[in-house]
Amino acid sequence: MTFLRSSHYFKALHLWSVLLSSLVLSAQNDHQPYFRNYSTDDGLPSPEVHDILQDRQGYLWIATDNGVSRFDGYRFHNYGAKQGLMNNVVFFLEEDSHGRVWMQTMSGNMYYYDQDSIHTYAHNDIFGQYRYFLPNGFMIPEGKWHYFSLIHLGILRVDSTGRHDFLNRNTSSMLVLLEKPELKRSLFSIVGNATLQQFGFPVNTSPTNHQLAVFSDSLNGVHDVYLKPGTTRSSGFSEGQHQLFDFRKELVIYQNYELVSRFPIPSKAAEIDRIDSTFWVGLNNKEGVWAFPSVSDLHQGRYQRYLKGNSISAVYRDNLGGHWFGTLEDGLRYAPNLDLRVIRPEILSPNENILCLQRGSDGQLLLGTDAGQIYALDTTGNFQKLQKIEGGVYDLRYTTNDRTLWVTGQPLQMIRGGKRKPVPYADALSRAELVSSKRILPSADSSRIYCLSSIGLEVVDRSAEQVVFSTLGTTYQTSFLDAFEDSGGRIWIGSTRGLLEFSEDQLRPVVHREPFFQLRIEAINELADGTLVMGSKGGGIALWKDAQVTILDDKAGLTSNMIESIIIDDEQQIWVATLNGLNVVRRDSVTREWSIRQVTMSHGLPSNEIHDLCHIGNWLYIATGNGLVRFPLKQKITRYAPAPFFETILVNGQPVDQDQLGRLKYNEGNIQLHFICLNYKFRENIPYRYKLNADAAWSYTRDRSVNYAALTPGNYTFELQAQNEDGAWSESLIAEFSISRPFWQRLWFRLGAVAFLLFGGIYYWYRVRLTRLRKEALTEKQINELHRSALQAQMNPHFIFNCLNSIQSFIASGDKTSAMHYLARFAKLVRATLNASTQASISLEEEVQVLKNYIELEKLRFHDRFEYTIEIDPELDPFEISLPPLLVQPFVENAINHGFNFTDPTRIGDLRIRYQKAGGYLRVSIRDNGLGIDRSQQHQANATSIHQLMGMSITQKRLSLQGAPAGDHLQVEELKDEANNTAGTEVVIRIKI
To answer: Which ranges does the record mark as transmembrane (predicted)?
Structure first.
């Protein structure tokens, strides 16, 4: 909005001078946008700001008297002498076509920022020649020359070799203007005659004829201009058609170098610029900045003043439409939205909060505060105090037919003609106390006023001006929060018990299966199609029509589920107030889907704490925790969202370039991605979402880094988006990275490993097979050797000698029958033994026959001094069971020769041999009643005994070769009688069958 300077602070009030007879204070409302302040407390190097620039990446650069600072919305990165900026007072900034940010210092020296470093201009030595002339701007265009404005001297140009001269060397014009339309920039200098003469320039000899010399690369023209006498310093600006100059506190305006108008300004202009259609003039001496919205406003001197109380040295609009203002004493000021205005009337005390808003007559806005004050804001911007009541004003309504203002409080009051009157109870209610209320609803037919309070509902008869119905003392004595009469005449009541309907002086709960209806209902309104809109504490809002109920909460996009107020504008937009921001709910006319747009401090609200709403005409008035806001109802939604970019990428803690991510090693799976989005409307609170690979779900964060601690080998696509203040998501930032597999996971290695394992397996099988064959051959050899040894062991030489002697004795005595019998058995034994030595195994039947022959021969030799039995288990088939030959014989021989070595010649030995089946083994028991192990071993010292021991040892080895478990193939036990005397020996052998 623009205002005439002559009437900016003085506007008449109306209506309430007629409505109320006692009007006390009057003050002009100051409509200002909400300005966010950045100071040294936020990291700015100095409160004295001289210039502002946004580079092509989106970073904001600030020139101060203590160096330059780069701002990213989160922090200020400051550059000074340590970073190479040797002259700290920086006046002007510019970015060249290569993205380098140039800085002009008070000394005239130039520096530029490139690749995160400050560099010195190669020709700074030139400026030393003109160190007494303050710099007034510069240009670094693409081409041969660089241009530098010096106050009182003109415009200096320098080429890449250091050759330099002045554009105005050959002109006597006191005003010099360089225009570069392709850069949308201009340079201006005012030159003094003394300086011109000192440097040999032509001198202007006329005290009244002043000229403006206009250059591009060369002189374009000279124009006669008005110059206020005594002007020695000036600010100038040109954008092709219009030229603006500050001549001794006078703003002089030219169009195509023809004087259009001039008018006084309160102080010297520190900044003159044009942004789109608006001309900006920043003033010194804390006079703020003037904004001329159009050429017409400029010509006629109509402007809006901002930031009165600050000296404005720079005005800049960023790429998202936010406006930045540099001050000489208070750092930076930032306005996200100039269309949004914060109203801070002087008559409103600093700690006074606006609780309620209501439309008055003729477009006025009525306000109630927690201090009990009632104010009116008229259409001309005047702010007026109307009344003061006890306690806070939580609601008020103006009824036009009787010109009455109804005000909540203790008690409920009506104000008419400047007189206040409390509303009493009707006599029929028999209540003496006055009515108390916090919300008011006039009925559609104007016959009633519904008053809601924390203890009940009361109905005021407007004609009688008294309460005719009350729930006090009834079962519905509860806290009532809002009331609404819909288009069908039904009265809906919001309470702590949920939604109620008031009909025929009865309150009835609304019974609905949707749990929302039992929540605390804080606000009620209605769309034109009859949809009832309800706001709750904790459940968001509900839209109810017929049988359909739609719930919208924070998951759907609301700033909070705790609703304070709801209004509906003429466009059927639902405005929902919460203590965490404002929401606009719309329904798409085609898809019929509901959408939610948030309006918060990022849009320019001074606070997200919203108490009440009211719309008048094209404006929405918002009562916030930090003042009254006037907000245009028809706000353009910003679809563009700036895309984020990477600041740093770390792999295993080391920084890498993004293009290196495509060739990572298998052990480089720790990846940290640090990113940023340059959206200054948010204050360090930008929403981001990201995912790894396209089919993954989005993850949401407000942090500026994502860490993947241990990614496995493979190909990945990282996708990141940033959200703007209107909920739109940016284009995706994509990073593709590939982590190679370790060599042992690659195909060539796997094929090689398979081949190696295959050939290794074959070789291993060959070696195992060869070893087994060798072992089998060795075992076979050992068995054969043991067979031969067994044969030798079975045929005891002493036994043979004794047998032959016995045969000879029978022959000598003439006992031919015995001799022939003995000889036949001996021959049979020798033949069986020889046959067994050639076979790997014999049948059990053959084994028993060999034993019988042997025992019978021994029995003859020992003159029948022992008896024997051989028992075979019936389960055993002696013809089917096979076993190694001559395994049992050595133990039988040992029992006969040593077990029966009795001192008593009358004692008869008893030998028992038994064959049994035990699992997969043949169990053979050789049992005698001889001397026992200990005594028999005492007699085993002769050659015969040694031979017998050798035979038993060989038999043990043969048993072990049959695979019997260690310690289980042979067991020897000395037998005891009941008196614990030796009763013989039992040998048990186990043969695998």
So the answer is: 747-766
- Residue that is written with structure tokens 């504008």 in the block: 569
pLDDT of residue 533: 98
Tens digit of each residue's pLDDT (9 = 90 or more) over 503-558:
988 899 999 999 999 999 999 999 999 999 999 999 999 999 999 999 999 999 99
Which amino acid is present at 335? A
* CA distance readout (Å), 350 to 347, 371, 826: 9, 11, 139
- Residue in the structure block whose two tokens are 């709910």: 585
Element (H, E) at 770: helix 747-794
d(Cα 279, Cα 242) in Å, to the nearest integer?
A: 10
Angle between helices 797-812 and 844-861 (to 10 degrees): 60
**Neighbouring C-alpha atoms within 13 Å toward the C-beta of 369:** 22
Beta bridge partners of 843: 882
CATH superfamily ID and name for 512-637: YVTN repeat-like/Quinoprotein amine dehydrogenase (2.130.10.10)
Q: Which residues contact 470 (CB under 8 A, 6 or more apart)?
A: 425, 429, 431, 456, 457, 458, 459
- CB of 134 closer than 8 Å to CB of 106: yes
Of 919, 853, 935, the residue nearest 886 (C-alpha): 853
CATH fit for domain 645-745, picks 2.60.40.10, 2.40.440.10, 2.170.150.70, 2.40.50.140:
2.60.40.10
Question: Alpha-carbon distance 120 to 284, whole Å?
Answer: 31
List pLDDT tens digits, range 64-109. 999 999 999 999 999 999 999 999 999 999 999 999 999 999 999 9
**Phi, psi values for residue 381, rounded to 5°:** 100, 0
How many degrees, rounded to 5, is the angle at CA 176 between CA 147 and CA 312? 80
CB atoms within 10 A of CB 36: 19
Closest by CA to 677, choosing from 722, 735, 726, 639, is: 722
Cα separation, 912 vs 300, in Å, equals 144
What does CATH list as the number for 787-992? 3.30.565.10
Q: Token match 């700690």: residue?
A: 351
Domain 33-343, CATH among 2.130.10.10, 3.30.565.10, 3.40.50.360, 3.90.180.10? 2.130.10.10
- Supply the pTM of this predicted model: 0.73
Nearest one of 818, 991, 824 to 921, comparing CA atoms: 991
Q: DSSP letter at 899?
A: I
Q: How far apart are CA 977 and CA 975, in angstroms?
A: 7
Q: What span, in angstroms and rounded, lies between the C-alpha atoms of 117 and 202?
A: 42
Is the distance from CB of 521 to CB of 495 less than 8 angstroms? yes
DSSP 373-423: EEEEE-TTSEEEEEEE-SS----EEEETTTTEEEE-BSS-EEEETTEEEE-
Q: What is the DSSP letter of 697?
A: P
CA–CA distance, 102 with 120 (Å, rounded to integer): 10
